[in-house]
Amino acid sequence: MTTGHSDTPLSVPLINPWLVAVTVALTTFMEVLDISIANVSLRHIAGDLAAGQDESTWILTSYLVANAIILPMSGWLSNLMGRRRFYLICVMLFTLSSLLCGLAPNLFALIFFRTLQGIGGGGLQPSSQAILSDTFPPHQRGMAFAVYGITTVMAPAIGPTVGGWITDTFSWRWIFLINVPIGIISFYLTRLWVYDPPHFNERRKTLLASRFKIDGLGFVLMALGFGCLQIVLDKGEQEDWFGSHFIVTLAVISALSLLVLPFWELRQKNPMMDFTLLKERNFLLSNILIFMLGFVLFSSTLLLPLFVQILMGYSATDAGLLLSPGGVAVLLFMPLIGYLINKTDVRRLIMIGLFLNIFSLLMFSRLNLQTDYATMALIRIVQGIGLGFLFVPINTAAFAEIPLVKSSNASAMINLSRNLGGSFGIALVQTWLSEGSQKHLTYLVGHLDPYRTLYQDSVKHIEQLITHFGLMSSNLNQTAQQLLFNEAYQQAELLAFLDNFRTLAWLFIAMIPAVFLLKKRDHSKR
Question: What are the backbone dihedrals phi and psi of residue 49, each rounded to the nearest 5 degrees, phi first?
Fold first, then answer.
């Protein structure tokens, strides 16, 4: 496919589209990786910068909030500046802020630089997908989205593992500094190989020639709505949700802003968010499906490492390695999925992805404390393959009926849906875990009745074990009762984890009707 330079639209160099795909995938992978790579390093960062653990969580929140604000308006900014120029600015800002994060002298500076990094990174995901959509012809678009899918599905899975290894082997500063050489390479390759297509340049010229007016109120509404929402989701569990005036205030601001936003944007000639895209049925349904994909992807990526660390004594590195086989499965199967896009209706592929995920999540809901690594890794591999069968077909269906001139706006919206799904997923499963373990503990402790024969026999059995193994205790009976209570607490947490996996399975089951509502056609043949 041929493309045109943003400044010289009549110049259309012949460039292999796969060179473009590798170029944009490179930096996007690092950006998505940075969402989760710092999670396991917070303790080290807090200690090195003499900060509290609660204060250090703003390192994550600042990045996510900046990401959430810039992402929905990235399509509008691309149309205004030119997609190539906007992408280069994002790469440059992401690279420079990564360097500054690695050199940050204190926590305040690190949070500030992370905010800049989130602004730069927020524009990379939608711009990359829009570039791929315009660079590849429709019959190759599935393969292009497969390359993009590798970056967005694999990166969250390996982020904690990579972050932990870098922190333990070198220093937490290198989780940011490694972005610098990759960013420089990406900037150079983007200038060399990425161009704006002629239709995009024509639309931009028309836009700038018209009586262009910046959508100031739309910007404010988006910044308040999505920024406050991200803080609510990221800090809600820590602040006891609506028991906190801080969370309630931000939730009200977010709700009011997001309620007014679509009504305002629909009245604008050049809106920052093009809500008219949601009138297209496939795009609307794809946004719902990609939201749930983000929900399950990020929440299950959080649940499984927590499960093996809290209940089975895995180290952070071992827990991360448990996720890695799923990432490898995504890497291996994405090209096959991209190939199948051209051979069958995407609805069939989405159903395969749903069933594989439902099966794997139900298998996770049957785990016990004796389950070995190989079994859990195999289940994760099945889930990874299923996620691949969802990501590529859903994105292909989403863009099938979207005009090329609106691909930037469409990409911004569908990436926003996936990121919001991930934020909701992480926030809700943490709350469900806490409430679920408390509910099950209350039930189990209610059966620890000292007057029941079964309880007394259990205590005596534990006393015998303590004595048999030669352990010393000043109060044998009290120690035995404490161990029995600890066992009940562990079982309560186990049941809460299993409930969460089962809930995620049911959420995907609820998505099945949406697949049948997609238009019955081969979306690669537009």
Answer: -100, 10
Q: By CB neighbour count within 10 A (0-12 exposed, 13-18 middle, 19+ buried), where does 15 fall?
A: middle
The rounded radius of gyration (Å) of the Cα atoms in the chain is 25
Q: Are 402 and 280 in contact (CB under 8 A)?
A: yes
Residue range 1-213 in CATH 1.20.120.1760: no
**Identical fold, 1-213 and 278-526:** yes
Q: Which two tokens stand for residue 245?
A: 């005036």
As beta bridge partners, residue 429 has: none
- Amino acid identity of residue 183, one-letter, is G
Structural domain spans, the chain? 1-213, 215-268, 278-526
Output the six-digit token pair for 25: 């995938």
User: What pLDDT was estimated at residue 495?
Assistant: 92
pLDDT at residue 346, as a whole number: 87
* DSSP one-letter code for 49: T
Report residues of the chain scoring pLDDT below 50: 1-12, 522-526
**SS3 category, 2:** strand
The answer to whether 390 and 293 have CB atoms below 8 angstroms apart is: yes
For residue 466, give the amino acid letter: I
SS3 435: helix
Burial profile 176-209: b = 16 or more Cβ within 10 angstroms, e = fewer: bbbbeebbeebbebbeebbbbbbebbebbeeeee
Torsion of Cα atoms, 82 then 84 then 85 then 86, to 10°: 80
Q: Which is the CATH superfamily of the domain at 278-526? A: MFS general substrate transporter like domains (1.20.1250.20)
